[in-house]
Amino acid sequence: MAAIELNDVTKRYDDITALQELCLTVTEGEIYGFLGPNGAGKSTTINILLDFARLTTGHVEVLGYDAQQESQRIRDHIGVLPEGFSIYDRLTGRQHLEFAIESKDADDDPDALADRVGIDDAIDRKAGGYSKGMAQRLALGMALVGDPDLLLLDEPSTGLDPNGAREMREIIRAECDRGATVFFSSHILGQVEAICDRVGILRDGTLVAEDTVEGLRDATQTESTLVIDVDQVPDGTSSAVRTLSGVSEVSTENTSLTVSCLDSVKTEVLNTVENEGASIQDFTTEDTSLEDLFAAYTQDEQLSEAQA
Amino acid sequence: MSWTVVAKKDFRDAIRSRTLWVLSALFVLFAAGFTYVFWFIPQLVGQQNLPASGPTIGLINGLSSSAGFLVPLIGLLIGYKAIVGERDSGSLKLLLGLPHSRRDVVLGKFVGRTGVVAVAILIGFSAGAIIALMLYDSFAFGVFVSYTLLTMVLGLVFVAIAVGFSAAMRSASRALYGVIGLFVLFVFVWGFVPTVLRFVLNGFTMPNLLARPDWAAFISLLNPTTAYGYASAALISDLPGPMMQNPPFYLQDWFGFVILAGWIVVPLALGYSRFASTDL
């Protein structure tokens, strides 16, 4: 059974189409990163999963339940960190956690939850005085109540400092190890690369790419930079490398060759260098950053259309 | 039974924010104050040779006219932000991220806020009863209890109307305009509506005001505060009821309860159906 299944989901607001025949499947037990620039439709998708928004056409199932007909049952089994929420100013952190525990009919310990999300020292303070980051941590704590089968996290690192974002990732990983599926949206890539099993990239309401981080890299055929240290550079080496298809630039500095080429021809470049009589001491690759990949998918019309 | 969790939280929130205590103090001031003034100015209570329930009936009559203003106002103000306030702030997303259905939210908020108004009325009227028991020569305790319960029902009606608005509207300010408009309508305007209608139907000349047709009486009765008067008369036999010979069933005093029930069910149902079908 899929944890999340969206079939041909279209969502229109008046004359704006937020989602266009979106199909997406999240497998049980995986960490799925839902990427896209602001306004791509990520929050709309999550709102539909939660029945905060109703789809115009299509079909959505979460944990095997119909998202519109059986929303309450779905929310019994999931933990939610919504986007653009606010906490209850007059309630303490503990009262928030207790309310979530009572609502889910669970038996978690509020202190243990607060400790886990790093607000244990503020648990008995009114949440009205919390910073944005603390409110985010508190809401994550509420989402973890009752060991949910699925965590839906909309821009979870909003308001968190780098350290907080790292703790968030650790919690996500731990939840996945426990057996939960994690679906989270982000417009920041650094968070996704490190922990996601799979990534979906949304643009203008459609999925323009969906793969593992590795798979996306391979598919985009963007360039890597290969730095090869050799004992010596025989004459003709750099011109031989330059003639290979897929190589765009070669430069030599002392006994070091720097080659810009497609990922797929890296091996060929190394072989050519050896054939020219150089002995390779060491080489390093600077991968395309996910940042570049993301830009490629969300900005380059042709590329994304080819992928779609 | 997830609505009970919502209702409990809502009621506790009213305690935390001291709303409950402020309201209770207000009703203590109102009911106890009224009871004392009635004792202090005995001619208001009526002649000494009335039946045993005389002073109590006099007191209830006096309380009714003011409660018909105060209770709707309090009910509407306590209820109008119940849902739309959370929608404005964004805490509704937190609430509905938990396993509560939208129906649980409407029902829970309605019950929670009704509890707040009902408890405040109960505390205030109890203070009134204590003063009456101490000062009055005779006090019909049972009658006063019936009247207190009925006033709590009136509070419930206006909370239902306000929560209905709160569920239907997209912003708190719109819900506020809605309930203020309704308050003005029921308290200040409604009394003229039947007469104006008759004036128009009569070819813009004044009809005979003493011979009121049944339909005009029924329009008056549609006002929940009027229905509260009918229901009071049905419950407390010594209270003056609708002054009519052989009224049709829809103008008999017990029909006040039907109208009150309608004012509970219809606003909640309309508000819920709008809330249930909307995108948050």
From TrEMBL, chain A:
Organism: Halococcus thailandensis JCM 13552
Sequence ranges assigned to domain ABC transporter in this UniProt record: 4-229
Domain of life per record: Archaea
GO function terms (MF aspect): ATP binding; ATP hydrolysis activity
SUPFAM superfamilies: P-loop containing nucleoside triphosphate hydrolases (SSF52540)
Key words, A-Z: ATP-binding, Nucleotide-binding, Transport
Gene3D superfamilies noted in UniProt: P-loop containing nucleotide triphosphate hydrolases
Family as reported in the entry's similarity comment: Belongs to the ABC transporter superfamily.
Keyword Hydrolase: no
Pfam family, one: ABC_tran
Name of this chain's protein: ABC transporter
From TrEMBL, chain B:
GO MF annotation terms: ABC-type transporter activity
PANTHER family according to UniProt: ABC TRANSPORTER PERMEASE (PTHR43471), ABC TRANSPORTER PERMEASE PROTEIN NOSY-RELATED (PTHR43471:SF1)
Keyword vocabulary terms for this entry: Membrane, Transmembrane, Transmembrane helix
GO cellular component: plasma membrane
Species the sequence originates in: Halococcus thailandensis JCM 13552
Domain of life: Archaea
Keyword Signal recorded: no
Protein name from the UniProt record: Copper ABC transporter permease
Record field: transmembrane: 20-39, 59-80, 110-133, 139-163, 175-195, 215-237, 249-270
